[in-house]
Queue: 2 jobs
Job 1
Amino acid sequence: MSTFRAFRISASGLTAERLRMDTIANNLANAETTRTPEGGPYRRQVPVFAPILSQAMGPGRPGQGQSGEGVRVVAIVSDESPPRLVYDPQHPDADGDGYVAMPNVNVVREMVDLVSATRAYEANITALNAAKQMALKALEIGR
């Protein structure tokens, strides 16, 4: 694997995990938003990742002969789980029975996802630094 390829793979992981952290932050910021331009409460957003594959050299059968080139975000989708119903007859968005449709954002789940995204981001930084150190050592050998 070339050094620059390792840099590209780690960079794609950093970009994807950063977007994941931004999406989680947006979910947390809107955890109490009961009105959206589309109508109804805010819906939790989730990024969808897909691998970036390239054709490896040599003959390959279907599903084989591909090597990883990183990750990309293919979409950010809305979580279609139902909203939480909270009894609050004084709320301006309460229905006739006094229930308010709250966003389907679970703060605990979002925090767990945030820790996971942070760890994945740190792992990509570690891989990037390891590739950088190997490249520097290779340059030192050439002196």
Note: Residues 93 and 106 are 20 Å apart (CA to CA).
Job 2
Amino acid sequence: MGAIPYSTRVRPDTGLTNGRLGTALFLLSEVMFYGGLFSAYVFLRSAATDWPAAGAPIPRDMGGVALVIHLIAAASVTLAWLRLSRDSRASVNALSLVTAIMATGFIAIIGQEHRMLANADTVAATSTYHAVYFLISDIHRVHVAAGALLAAYMIGPGRTLQLRDSMAYANRVACIAWYWLFLAAAWLVTAVLFHVI
């Protein structure tokens, strides 16, 4: 039984490998998913007479720290991808570890932010503003947790793949970097909607 075609070589019709094409299609579905969440925010905000409504405001300082940590996580995995694209044997362990640690930090900060809001008697039932924020930020935390697992894969099982087939490993790291770049863009939009506008 032969190898799957275009698993490491670029397809002539798309200019992508199978993995990158699959990742691109997955990210397009994620764009639609987040687009629905952001559209709900816009419609609910435009219909609200008072925005933000009752309850404690979302702490901007924690939101800023979460944004910086998120951008560092995305930048480090993207840097790992760029290093691999230049040198197939480049070690990406340290950069992958930075991504995993920053992702865990992001999850913890948003969790602490939610606990602070809950202690101020601000829960999803008290205002539409907070309900939408809790929904979007919790969904995003699940996505970031998946990204942390992908970064851990790069450190663990991915290392053995790199030694066996460096091109396949580089393709997987590229897909993980695309995922993290999408997450960074989605959280940037979230931060602007809830902390700036």
Note: Helices lie at 18-47, 60-86, 93-119, 128-155, 157-164, 166-196.
